[in-house]
Write a structure and sequence with these properties.
heterodimer, A: TIM Barrel, 10% strand, globular, B: 288 residues, five-stranded parallel sheet, three-stranded antiparallel sheet, 10 helices
Chain lengths: 311, 288
């Protein structure tokens, strides 16, 4: 039995309405049964490529690795009909290296900040990190919320921190990582979404996960957050964007997520200003499936951008 | 009280799991007297695709095992075949009423497995070489497995021929996807069940059933397959070669115009293993 939520959180949930867990899971199970045929599939794959935040968040990242990532983001494949990705996503120290290659291009630079992935640093340190990333040229900042404070019911603290980071961002787009796997329930995910959206500007994002915990973006989490965005839009008219991240590795999964967007929020959200995929391996599979659609033959991963030594 | 019959649903062995076809389709399998036996999965190119993914995933781990360990596992397959020899013979007898022939085929299949179990740590000594070069280098060639191999088994000798094609490929650390005999598929279903309990890592051998016309074009063009080993007639060979040319895939054919004696000594051995090896030559400076 999970511990019961503190009063502040419970009253927020009753204000915004709880989530029907069984209903959500039945709903998302249906998304995996849609049959997407050739022309729509190619369109969806290209759309997904244009929505990828090509990510590298490892301790061993170097300027050289980021440079090759940037070139891949600009030109995922020889085929000119395959678009660039939406952004690259790197650690703050590497933003200036990415900026050199991406200045003047359509590919944005996203940087995780605020003591990613735990967020367990003093607020002043986290804000300083955000300002440093912005001044180095980051176009988008991915922040993490204080999950501990959220679960303890200190909602005002969490919201004030988001607002402080938003102010530190200036004109830079903000993405708020809820880290859904640590929020434990769909109700909490919905509550955290609303908490963040109430202080965000139109065009800012809410994001599922850091990709650093055991469970990441799922269709269920994604659906809860999409419905929160829909309800918030109907209530206030503010359009908040969405970014699932972590665990989306195959083109098939990406298409299922796009179906969820299409059927929950409609065409207005089917562009990379409103929806993104945070992923490192997904782009390879998208390009591979596009090559398959073009040539008619199943492709080997090593003929594209995976290590040529792979089996 | 009469007991309700418990009939088995035949399933294919892919990625270490038992699957029905992705399409959900089946075809009727009849015995030599024309009586219905069971419904066999009618696998499609999507099942082939999934099998290739499973084989590619299992590949590095299988190739990295020591030759000795691969030999132990192949021998274990022989042990498991031996323990279900009667059942295999009964499966062969469904389509070939000559039960002496069925028993003989099962024995030959078991012996063939033991044969290749012995080869795992020996082929390298015979096929690898130290090469004489006139520069100050120690120059040597080692044999490496190719990767995922596609197999189209013939219609006849459905157990022995299938195993005879699979074993030389996996002996050296390749993984295989194999389409079993269409007219006599049941032994391959049993073989999957036997492989599942014989220490063979899931995905090293992937077996599926269906029609050649569904599978052959995709097997020819699938870029992830490094080689195709096919018992095929002339027009099938042409189609495979045309598809394979795109990605420079190796093709090894057993022409179906000629009758193959699967029991013969030359249906097994080192040269079958060599079909699915890639030599790697290293120049190592010495005396500098």
């Amino acid at each position: 039995m999970a511990r019961s939520n503190p009063i502040a959180l419970r009253s927020l949930i009753s204000e915004i309405g709880p989530v029907d867990q069984v209903g959500i899971e039945e709903r998302v199970a249906k998304y995996t049964t849609r049959s997407i045929k050739k022309a729509s599939k190619v369109q969806a794959l290209k759309l997904a490529v244009s929505m990828v935040d090509l990510t590298t968040l490892e301790g061993k990242d170097t300027p050289g690795k980021v440079a090759s990532l940037c070139l891949k983001a600009l030109h995922p494949h020889d085929d000119p009909s395959i678009p660039s990705t939406a952004a690259v996503c790197v650690y703050p120290r590497l933003v200036k290296h990415a900026k050199k290659l991406l200045r003047g291009s359509s590919v944005k630079i996203a940087s995780v900040a605020t003591a990613f992935p735990s967020g367990q640093a003093p607020l002043a340190t986290r804000l300083a990190e955000v300002r440093a990333a912005v001044s180095d040229g980051a176009d988008e900042i991915d922040m993490v919320i204080s999950r501990g404070a959220f679960l303890a019911g200190e909602l005002a603290l969490v919201q004030d921190e988001i607002a402080a980071v938003r102010d530190a961002c200036g004109k830079t787009t903000l993405k708020v990582i809820l880290e859904t796997s640590e929020l434990e329930t769909y109700d909490n995910i919905r509550a955290a979404s609303f908490l963040a959206m109430r202080v965000l500007r139109p065009g800012d994002f809410i994001k599922t996960s850091t990709g650093k915990t055991s469970s990441n973006a799922t269709l269920g989490n994604n659906q809860v957050m999409l419905e929160a965005i829909r309800d918030f839009y109907l209530e206030t008219g503010t359009e908040i964007a969405m970014k699932p991240a972590g665990g989306i590795r195959t083109a098939k999964q990406a298409i299922q997520f796009l179906i969820a967007v299409k059927e929950t929020l409609g065409d207005a959200w089917l562009n990379n200003a409103r929806y993104r995929f945070g992923a490192s391996a997904l782009l390879n599979d998208l390009v591979r499936q596009l090559a398959k659609e073009k040539t008619g033959a199943y492709q080997a991963p090593y003929t594209l951008s995976e290590a040529s030594g792979s089996y | 009280m009469t007991r309700l019959p418990i009939t088995k649903t035949p399933k294919c062995f892919v990625g270490g799991a038992f699957i029905r076809s992705e399409s959900g389709r089946v075809y009727e399998h009849k015995d030599s007297a024309g009586a219905f036996v069971c419904n066999i999965p009618l696998c499609t190119r999507k099942d082939l695709r999934n099998a290739v993914e499973a084989a590619a995933k299992a590949g590095p781990g299988w190739a990295k095992r020591s030759a000795y360990n691969r030999g132990q596992i192949l021998y274990r397959i022989a042990e498991m075949l031996e323990s279900r020899a009667d059942e295999l013979a009964a499966a062969l007898s469904l389509t070939n009423p000559n039960s002496a022939a069925a028993s003989r085929e099962v024995r030959a299949a078991i012996d063939r497995t033991v044969h290749y179990a012995g080869w795992t740590d020996k082929y390298e000594s015979l096929l690898g070489s130290v090469n004489p070069v006139s520069t100050p280098h120690f120059n040597f060639t080692v044999m490496e497995p190719m990767g995922v191999i596609g197999i189209l088994a013939p219609e006849e000798a459905p157990l022995l021929s299938l195993l005879s094609m699979i074993l030389p490929a996996i002996t050296s650390g390749n993984t295989v996807i194999a389409l079993a005999s269409h007219s006599q598929p049941y032994p391959s279903i049993l073989l999957g069940e036997i492989l599942a309990v014989s220490d063979l890592p899931g995905g090293v051998v992937n077996l599926f059933t269906g029609t050649r016309t569904d599978i052959l074009p995709t097997m020819a063009t699938h870029a992830h397959l490094r080689a195709v080993y096919a018992a095929a007639n002339k027009s099938e060979r042409t189609e495979i070669q045309q598809g394979a040319a795109e990605h420079v895939k190796r093709t090894v054919f057993l022409p179906s115009e000629k009758t193959i004696d699967w029991f013969a000594d030359d249906a097994q051995g080192l040269y079958q293993i060599r079909h699915f090896l890639e030599p790697k030559t290293t120049w190592h400076p010495v005396g500098i």
